[in-house]
Amino acid sequence: MSQAPAHARSSQTVTLTEDATGKSWKLKVLEGTMGPKVIDTRGLYGETGYFTYDPGFTSTGSCDSQITFIDGDKGILLHRGYAIEELAAKSSFLETAYLLQYGELPNRAQMEKFTHNITHHTMVNEQMARFYSGFRRDAHPMAVMVGVVGALSAFYHDSIDIGDPQQREVASHRLIAKMPTLAAMAYKYAHGQPFMYPQNHLGYAGNFLHMTFAVPCEPYKVKPVLARAMDRIFILHADHEQNASTSTVRLAGSSGANPFACIASGIASLWGPAHGGANEAVLQMLQEIGHKDRIPEVIEKAKDKDSPFRLMGFGHRVYKNFDPRAKIMRQTCHEVLGELGVNDPLLEIAMELERIALQDEYFIERKLYPNVDFYSGIILKAMGFPTSMFTVLFALARTAGWIAHWHEMLSEGQKIGRPRQLYTGPVTRPYPALDARSESVP
Ligand code: SDX
């Protein structure tokens, strides 16, 4: 049987018995530091001739990881052992990105060096600007991001050799540094405004706000409350275990694809409304609701099995309690709207929707709570971002997590990811001559 992963213990076994024949097999149980144990099925097919079957991976561990831990029942989220509540309150996005990638919080000298490296990678090759003019002005900015981030591999050839740890590190720094620049350029292009260059004297979040909202004609002063809120929102979106987009990055990386292509695949996966695209969908839903009086009707529609409509920003594959990020996001929402003196009726609708849903048997029974996307859109709208940019901001922040998982997967020398299937198609059959084929083809 395969060796247990370095940071796991294997002390117990489980026995699988084939009732029809009475044959049985012992399978190793692997135990990590926290969370559910796993049954090691790596040798299952070779020993038993059976595959496991778990579309959507509801009960499947795809890897072992030391980066993020989630307890869905208790609503706990840890990054390298530190609670998201502490990181959101005391850390910064760059410090969290460092923690995710290197495993420990940086000391002062390490933080200064990391910040200097990231700051001095924020510019993009000037020719990248010409990519944007190939898009329609009304292209969705996520379509632009998938394109331009993948195109980074056409420019930075000195950091695509994944076998070289130094090149892997440079590629990681380039991606964390350049995502805000590329995202701001996507916003500017959509608005017909000139691109703004990064300003090295600004912090990570403030620099992004400057590149997005400043214009060449007048000075732009970054509001500290907005820079702090932006940085906290980036922290809350930085990583989240083996979610769909992170699993996409790991799978792409397992083939040896270059880091820029892998992150582009993560952006594509995050775009879906069931995943990172939900923040945009939440705001559209709240705008369609329009008034608190319509909430009961919307709740009924969300419960209707015959309707594809779901309450966007509600529910989660892992959290069966409050998403801890949603609580922090709701608090940030009140802070930012209060500081800006914004009285957005959508916030009232969102809070009333949350109140009613959390009292409804359907949501209680299915343990459906607000997730990270439920409040984020209201804050981002108050900060001046159009709805179409919401998922771009999610991708910007999640790049830190994607990069950390990509590094971890490569450093552990994972084999190429290649799932199998339960085949339910036609059995072997002879090729029929054209005129011998039946009339009714599907
Ligand atoms: C993110 O994985 C991550 O960690 C993701 C993420 C991250 O940081 O990377 O946290 C970010 O993607 C958050 C989720 C954003 N998506 C949404 O808000 C879209 C709305 N939510 C749903 O589509 C849904 O809740 C999912 C996709 C998030 C989770 O779906 P699951 O785990 O596959 O659950 P399911 O579809 O099996 O639902 C279980 C039941 C079903 O009812 P029954 O068939 O049992 O009767 O709950 C119902 C569902 O119909 N249900 C909902 C609902 N979500 C689930 N009903 C109404 N509204 C909803 N939002």
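^ s-citryldethia Coenzyme A complex. The two ends are 46 Å apart (CA to CA). Strands lie at 9-17, 24-31, 38-39, 68-71, 76-79, 82-83.
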